[in-house]
Amino acid sequence: MALLGVPVVFIALFSVGLRSNIPGAPVAFSLSNWSNFLTGGGGAFRGRFVYSMEVTLAVSVLTTLAAYPLAYFLSFVARHRRYALLLLLLAPFFTSYLLRVIAWQIILNNNGVVNSLLWDLHLRPQGDGVSWLIYSTFSVALVLFYSWIPFVSLPIFVVLENMDHRLQEAAADLGASRMSTFWKVTLPLSLPGVIAGFVFVLIPTTGEFITPLLVGGPNNQLFGNSIQAFFSATPDWNYGSVLAVALIVVVVVLTLLFGRFLQTDLRAEARPEQ
Amino acid sequence: MRPVSRIGSAGLAIYFWLFVVFLFAPLVILLIFSVNSSPTPTLPLAGFSTHWFHEAFSNTVLTNALVRSVFIALVAAVIATALGIMASLGLMALRGRSLSMALTLLLLPLVVPYICLAVGLLILVEVLGSGPSLIAVVLGHCVVVLPFAILVIMPRLRSLDPAMNEAALDLGASSFAALRLITLPLLAPALVSSGIICFVTSFDEFAIASFLAPSGQPTYPVFLYASARTPALLPEVIAVGALIIAGSVLLVVLAEGGRRWAERRLVGLTASQEAVLSTAAAEQQAVPVAMVND
Fold first, then answer.
1. Would the ipTM clear 0.85, i.e. be above it?
2. What is the separation, in whole angstroms, between the first and last Cα of chain B?
3. What are chain A's domains?
4. pTM for the structure as a whole
């Protein structure tokens, strides 16, 4: 626990100038880095932050939308094979994250799999790659979408499995069509799982920095990359800490905002009195 | 009426299987290029060759990085699982609000972005004067994998019948003997799962290792990242990557199958939702589902 708390405290100290990584530099409480980031000349980082949140939100929404039918298939169509198929869906998730990003790099590269296929099929002139395939918002979003979709279908599947299926039968008995049963019964009841899935992408993607490093161009770096840069390439730990604290605050706020919608087994188990 | 029409079922099935193809395609492509003789991973394929596997295993930087990562992951998995047992036993004693708070604290590393934790730990080791070291990497990994250990061990601990422990105590066992002879053996399947999940997560962790591993001692993901930007190294990396992908998929299937089999033997548990939940816990960056006030 201390191992988590202490680093966070130190980041906070650095962000207000009470510590410095430059030996001999004056150390004093100062909010100048904060005001620079929030209102002053740090507009580039504010812009980076807005871009990050846009990408993150888009990826979270798309992933959740695409994951719903997967979970629905597992729960209502696959029946007795559903756990085996779920495992199939989750298996890629257990392989190295970096390797999967590298695989996408190979696929999307300027002379990668997709482009060379297009050339071979004479759909595009030889040597002329599709420019937005890699080092673009598209490539960053695609790889993030790819990485998270198995995991998002999981909470939706759990909710669909736990649903009282007699409610759907009742709706059908009372004359509802399949469509209206879905829109009026199944979907509203599964919303907690949908929100959980959404948050499952939203939170980790907010701090993502590996995918943009490998498949993003200079304009597609996310907020996490800005933090990373301040601690490696151009060491300014004080400014970097400001960004890190800002990111932690955003993530904690998001968790608190959405966390109350998460109603899963562990939580139910944790409160047996209810 | 079936919940989904025949046409709907077929449509959903097609959608599902297309997604399976989408999910596995990049992995299959890595496997294909690992046995492709060309030094660049591009089409058309140049011919079958196991050349890159030989190259990879004679590259000592790569093999050392692999050994380093295995070692770090083993240590982190053992420490985190041990801490996970203690934390779960402690959590069992709590109820209501204090339980919610303790869970929130313990699961917090799941929401704090790895990059923030990584730079925080970097600051910490610099302030302490020790600088980046492999020990720092192990400790950092313990922090991030501990929540997974708890998420796997706690549900299992809760499902145990408290009467068994009480019976042991009534029959004169010390509380330590009851723990060792009754609780721990019953927890064994969860402990194995926890160990595997922590191992896999630590083995694959990049953010913390990239900041805390000393410059001459990269872990495997750190090496992987560096070589993704060095075309000459790429084929070797792909070869080892292909082996690791095959290995980890196998491990997951075996672990999940083995755990269900063992749990069914122990308490007649059917393949239930609990299995799904602990798979959920296995994820690299989950959201602490219990980390809510009310």
1. no
2. 38
3. 2-270 (1.10.3720.10)
4. 0.81
